[in-house]
Design a protein that fits this description.
By secondary structure, this protein is mainly α. It has one domain. Helices cover 73% and strands 0% of the residues. It is built from 14 helices and no strands. The longest helix is centred in the N-terminal third of the chain and has 28 residues. The two termini are 27 Å apart.
Length: 309
């Protein structure tokens, strides 16, 4: 899940990186909830209820901080709305569709191209400096991602729809990260994160309205039984709200250059679930390309962080 990006504290504490790793690992478990839910519910219904549950949990944290909005510019509100629509709603739907239409392991690893997209977008929107070392590592990441997306080297153009949805998800989550930069300048992390979830719920409500499914049958289909309800609660809490709080607390106690490495635990957790639990295996060339992709993306982040020192 893409998140709003806070400014990390300058002093690192020993527990900080491990909190980052724990939050990232819990985020990586969301496939364990989404995949079984896809057998019962449409992707947009899953994302609607995911946001509805998170909004209920977030309201006690949001309401006391609403006074901050009086000091926020309209431009910041616009960034927040974009972040909520692009990251919380559209990105989540595309990720769910990617799991439904492709190799689950491939989908989770392809998403790691996101920092390349967000760094490029930050250059255009905020004029961020791009390190010279960004270009070769970004090119390597893109090349590795292209090879990784191919299931069979004998038919290199036979890429399933899941990869397309995953790339769309990475794009919108990357744009959401960039928008988060514009929000965090004037708004507390708690309020910004909570309001983004609220905007995500409003967006999904509009989607269901246009689909003609904003009714009892559409929101509460017969397939929404006890197991599906528990799955939605697990997705919104154990793989959603709780990891968010743990992750951001860890970032407050971790240098950015260190956090990037520990964030890779999210991909490891996702792969363990999709490959080990759901049997979505990879070919030998995908394993090799996936490792190259993760290393290249890590070096992209490290190169960019060096420009901020």
């Amino acid at each position: 899940m893409a998140a709003l990006t806070p400014v990390a504290a300058p002093h690192e504490r020993r527990i900080g990186p491990w909190l980052v790793a724990l939050g990232a690992a819990l985020w990586g478990t969301e496939s364990a909830w989404r995949i079984p839910l896809l057998d019962k519910l449409p992707a947009d219904t899953i994302v609607f209820w995911e946001h509805a549950i998170m909004v209920v949990l977030a309201l006690p944290l949001i309401v006391p901080r609403l006074g901050e909005l009086r000091r926020v510019r309209k431009q910041t509100i616009a960034w927040l709305i974009f972040s909520g629509v692009a990251g919380s709603a559209v990105g989540a739907v595309l990720f769910t569709l990617a799991l439904a239409n492709g190799n689950k392991t491939v989908v989770n690893v392809v998403l790691n191209i996101q920092p390349v997209l967000s760094t490029t977008a930050a250059f255009f929107f905020f004029g961020d400096r791009i390190a010279r070392r960004f270009y070769p590592w970004a090119a390597l990441a893109v090349a590795a991602g292209a090879v990784f997306a191919i299931d069979d080297l004998s038919t290199p153009w036979a890429v399933d729809a899941g990869v397309g949805y995953a790339l769309g998800c990475a794009f919108f989550w990357g744009m959401s990260t960039v928008a988060g930069r514009g929000v965090m300048v004037e708004m507390s992390l708690t309020l910004a994160s909570g309001l983004r979830v609220v905007i995500g719920l409003v967006s999904m409500t509009v989607v269901l309205l246009f689909e003609g499914r904003l009714n009892a049958q559409g929101i509460l289909p017969p397939e929404l039984d006890r197991d599906a309800a528990l799955g939605l609660v697990g997705l919104a809490t154990l793989s959603g709200g709780i990891p968010l709080m743990i992750y951001f607390k860890g970032l407050q106690l971790t240098r950015a250059s260190t956090a990037g490495y520990f964030e890779m635990v999210q991909t490891l957790a996702a792969v363990l679930i999709t490959w080990g639990w759901f049997g979505a295996s990879l070919a030998w060339h995908q394993v090799l390309a996936g490792v190259v992709l993760l290393v290249a993306v890590t070096l992209v982040q490290r190169a960019q962080q060096a420009t901020e020192l």
